[in-house]
Amino acid sequence: MDLGAHVSTAGGVDKAVARAVDMGAEAMQIFVSSPRAWAFKAPPDQVATSFKDAAKKAKLGPTVFHAVYLVAIGAPDEALLLKSVESLINYVKTADVLGAEGVIFHPASHRGAGYDAVEAQMVGAVHTVLKSAPGKAWLALENSAGMGDHIGSKFEQLGRLVKAINHPRIRVCIDTQHAWAANYDVATREGLDATLEELDKHVGLKLLTAIHLNDSKNDRGSAVDRHENIGQGKIGAAGIKTIVSHPSLAKIPMYLEVPGFEDQGPDKKNVDIIKQLRKEAGVSR
Ligand SMILES: [Zn+2]
Ligand SMILES: [Zn+2]
User: Could you tell me the sign of the dihedral formed by the alpha carbons of 97, 98, 104, 110, in that order?
Assistant: First the structure.
């Protein structure tokens, strides 16, 4: 498995590769615009070319994008829905331009309307995005921690949505912290086996394309989305070791989205800790 990390693109997307290499990451996740704004500017051709060259030279595994946080295709709000769709179209198109595999996004909140009331709207939105960005890049739904009215904390609901979308370019990303918060025991071998069994039953393991590998500040079942550095949280070093060495996950790239030991996001120290755990488990890249 490739051990990746979310990497900053400050100064241009082509700057991300060197940052990934510096921290020892084997793959990367990036934003291609500010995650807290709608504004989007496609990277210039020259930047795209230097990005692709650098990623290839560094022998990085799959690059994935994370959609901007504002995206909410399940919100009963026409203007927000249109902006969300437009943003995802830009991201999926840019993924193909930069040679990234796909775009991970949050199903976000139904804002009190209930899942059933917004399912058809979400299905329509995903189809519009994939039709408008008809390349190779996929779109992956990420499981949520289950805060408030957030959709997709339970694999059963995520599976319902995936089945309703029923598109060859739909995928799923599982965030270990969100799964933990949604009361899935990912920290023990027995618990992780059961978790993956449930994921397979409702979603299908073959759709699992990426893992967000994060420890958790809060207890299992807390429904709180708060990531922690590897080994410092409630999942703990032993739990993370169980995840990185699980045979069913051996070919799934994992991306850190941890706060960092200096609060600057994923860093070399977190990467090194996982590499050590992976080594102890007798697993290699
Ligand atoms: Zn995540
Ligand atoms: Zn999160």
Answer: negative
Using the predicted structure, report yes or no on whether residue 285 has a pLDDT greater than 90: no
98 phi, psi to nearest 5 deg? -90, 0
Structural domains in the chain, sorted by start: 3-280 (3.20.20.150)
**Ligand 2 centroid from CA 225, angstroms:** 5
* Closest ligand relative to 145 C-alpha: 2
CA proximity to 249, closest of 173, 179, 183: 173
Residue type, 66: H
Give the tokens for residue 95: 């993924």
Least Cα distance to 245 among 200, 196, 199, 283 occurs for 283
Kindly report, residue by residue over 238-258, the tens digit of the pLDDT.
999 999 999 999 999 999 999
CA torsion sign for 52, 55, 60, 63 is: negative
Q: Measured between alpha carbons, how far is 170 from 192 in angstroms, rounded to an integer? A: 24
Distance from residue 175's CA to the centre of ligand 1 (Å): 5
DSSP state for residue 5 in the 8-state scheme: E
DSSP state of 43: P
Neighbours of ion ligand 2 (CB under 5 A): 225
